[in-house]
Design goal:
Blueprint: E1 16-22, E2 28-34, H1 36-45, E3 49-52, E4 57-60, E5 69-76, E6 83-89
Parallel strand pairs: 1-6
Antiparallel strand pairs: 1-2, 3-4, 5-6
């Protein structure tokens, strides 16, 4: 077990990337970023919160759409600078109304 204070937020300028997978299917749903505050809110509430790099603000996934992500487990990578969220996804994860943000194949 690792605490939030042991994570390396500095390497990414205060942000850590998060890979989000469906708990049951292990389908990769999206990639987002958290700062320390977003991660603490996620742990406290049990629902995914992220940091928007474009809006420069904290946001709860599904706050307006209802497509929330209930946290089942959180894993930390070996360098302590990336996270994996296993979630129960309600509705589509992608803002383009797709189940996963990874629906396009690179040519």
């Amino acid at each position: 077990m690792i605490s939030v204070n042991e994570l390396d937020f500095e390497k990414g300028g205060g942000l850590i990337p998060v890979v989000v997978q469906d708990y049951s299917t292990r389908e990769v749903l999206m990639v987002a970023y958290v700062n320390k505050e977003a991660l603490e809110k996620t742990i406290e509430s049990g629902y995914a919160h992220y940091w928007s790099r474009s809006r420069k603000s904290l946001w709860k996934k599904g706050e307006t759409s209802g497509n929330v992500q209930k946290i089942r487990e959180i894993f930390v990578d070996c360098d302590q600078d990336a996270l994996l969220y296993l979630v129960d996804q309600v509705g589509p994860a992608c803002h383009l109304n797709k189940r996963s943000c990874f629906f396009r194949r690179l040519l």
